[in-house]
Amino acid sequence: MRTRPSPPPDPLSRRTALRAAGAGALLLGTGGGLAGCRSAVSAQENAAAAGPQRGGKLTIGINQDFTPALLYTQSGESLQNRLLYNTLIRYDDELKPRPELATSWEYAADGRSITLKLRDDVTYHDGRKFTADDVVFAVENLKKPERSAQLAATAKSVTGFEKRGEHELVLKLAHPVSNLFDLFEFMIITDRHTVDEAVKGTKFNGTGPFRFKEWRPGTSLSLTRNEKYWIPDRPYLDAVELRLYTQPDALLSALRSGQVHLSYHASGKHLATLQSNANFTIKQYSTGNGAVYVGASVHETPADSKEFRQAVAWAVDRDRVVKQALGGYGLASAAPWPRSSPAYSEANRTHYTHDPGRARQLLKSSGVATKRTLPLGHPTTPLHTSIAEIVQYDLQQIGIRTELEPSDPASFQKKLISGTMPTLWINGHAFAQVQPATLAVSAYPFNEAKNTSGYRSEKYTEAVQDAWRHKDPSGARALARYQKISDLLLDEAFIIDLAVQGAVQVAAKELHGPRLTKFSYLDLDDAYLV
Question: Which pTM was predicted?
Fold first, then answer.
């Protein structure tokens, strides 16, 4: 039973909700055969116009199971993080930090410390008050190798803490850090007393809008409303269930039948079919929080040849990847940066295009033998499988034979982290949607100190460190530093970007208000069903 709450104060999350490409969600389709639905749709529209309603259970369709051991790792399934936990800040569309658990901050002029003032009215689900000690723990926790946290390098730049009471904290830094606020949005504030239980999947004690109820491995993750959430009158929903659908047809059927209200994992070809259904809204996030790529292990022959890797970069038809695999929801790009990034340029995006002739010439001039069939690894998700098949075909056209090696997403992620990938592989990466230095110091495929490809270079390390060790991530000098990174990435081609994609949200028409953070954590503070 859903009821209407009294009108609450306008919350921060509403003011800073992510905008879709253009303005707001794109309502797609009023085609034939839907006349019988119009009265229901009209009723939903009337209810929505009257304002938020309280109650109801939201079901979310996911295609990768929740993996507690990767709780502190940005992976293909991080949606639940913002439901259980909060972060210190949240970015708006322009990468400006806005308060969450931190109410304000003061960055020292020399960039060697930052003072945080914290909320004093927040409690964990078990009733314990949130204090500065929890922030200290969160930073120290991300430094641990077993957490596999991509922003560990930024956490390690914090070398000391000075508490000024229970809700004010000074973080002392080894050097200025251009992506410090990326850490503050990425870093979920978990309970220091139950962290071992959290990574085992038995207990999740956070400050977020929902409490942990049950995890059924291979099936679902169930959450219930936090009645003592620190944002007044939130959340509206009574419960949330993340339900696993490993087969794309099963997810599509669940959406169409109303078993699932929301998903970010509908395949490209299925997005096309949903566009003509008036019972759904489709919203593409314009932040470019993901990209798909071909990775190359530079310690393996023939991927140890730069000319071979560049030939692969010229061989792949990126427009076909966008059209067929992404359903048109993406931007063909040889560089990792979305248009919203300070590092974006059209020249970088079009540095490599589909040119099989040029690819063959590079292979011929390099003298690389291509008679051996090469492994081409990829996760078993529909998107990555589709991209792998396109890449396999395009490489065959220039004389490179490959054999697909699929792995389940959790196993693939472990291989990615440990650097045990085959000669070539297909995957997606994030971290280009925030401060540009974060990509090269945090994302496993790009990390200058230790990346999945095994690529190392003094020039690359110098360029990355130069971009990272600065307080100001904007301005002409910062842009010049980012271009040095782009030039090296494009020339060395150990990661061959194919397309930048923003998350695509498919939501039932009765659902209002969901949003994704910059790190693809799902924020349901303002979400409700009508």
Answer: 0.84
* Alpha carbons 281 and 285: distance in angstroms, whole number: 13
Give the neighbor-by-neighbor strand order of the sheet with 424-429. Answer: 331-332, 495-501, 290-296, 424-429, 374-379, 402-407
**How far is 378 from 359, CA to CA, in rounded Å?**
23
C-alpha radius of gyration, the chain, whole number = 23
Q: Specify the DSSP class assigned to residue 18.
A: P
**Amino acid in position 180:** L
Instruction: Please name the residue that has the structure tokens 């909320």.
Output: 119
The DSSP bridge partners found for residue 104 are 117
Q: Is the peptide bond before 97 cis (omega within 30 degrees of 0)?
A: no
- Exposed, middle or buried: residue 414 (CB in 10 Å: 0-12, 13-18, 19+)? middle
Antiparallel, parallel or unpaired: β 504-508 and 280-284: antiparallel
DSSP 54: B
Q: Which phi and psi (to 5°) does residue 233 adopt?
A: 65, 20
SS (H, E, C) 83-98: HHCCCCEEECCCCCEE
Decide: 27 and 276 in contact? Cβ < 8 Å.
Answer: no
- Map tokens 């994030």 to a residue: 430
- 61 pLDDT above the threshold of 80: yes
The answer to whether 186 and 200 have CB atoms below 8 angstroms apart is no
Q: Decide: 497 and 291 in contact? Cβ < 8 Å.
A: yes
Q: Which residues of 190-224 are buried (b: 16+ CB within 10 A; e: fewer)?
A: bbbebbeebbebebbbbbbbbbbeebeeeebbbbb
CA-based end-to-end distance of the chain: 10
Q: How many CA atoms lie within 13 A of 300 on its CB side?
A: 20
Quick one: how far is CA 490 from the chain centroid? 22
Nearest to 525 by CA among 104, 11, 90, 47: 11
What span, in angstroms and rounded, lies between the C-alpha atoms of 290 and 428?
A: 7
- Find the DSSP H helices in 56-129: 81-84
pLDDT tens for each residue of 373-392: 999 999 998 889 999 999 99
Reference 258, options 11, 511, 65, 5; nearest CA is 511
What is the widest separation between alpha-carbon atoms in the chain? Answer: 73
Does residue 334 come out as left (phi exceeding 0), alpha (psi in the -120 to 50 range) or beta? alpha
**What backbone phi and psi angles, to 5 degrees, belong to 340?**
-80, -10
CA 162 to chain centre: 32
* Whole-number Å distance between alpha carbons of 143 and 154: 9
Number of H helices, E strands in the chain: 18, 23
Could you give the CA distance from residue 323 to residue 413 in angstroms, rounded to a whole number? Answer: 26
Q: Smallest Cα–Cα separation from 518: which of 434, 428, 429?
A: 434
Per-residue pLDDT tens over the stretch 6-24: 444 443 433 333 333 333 3
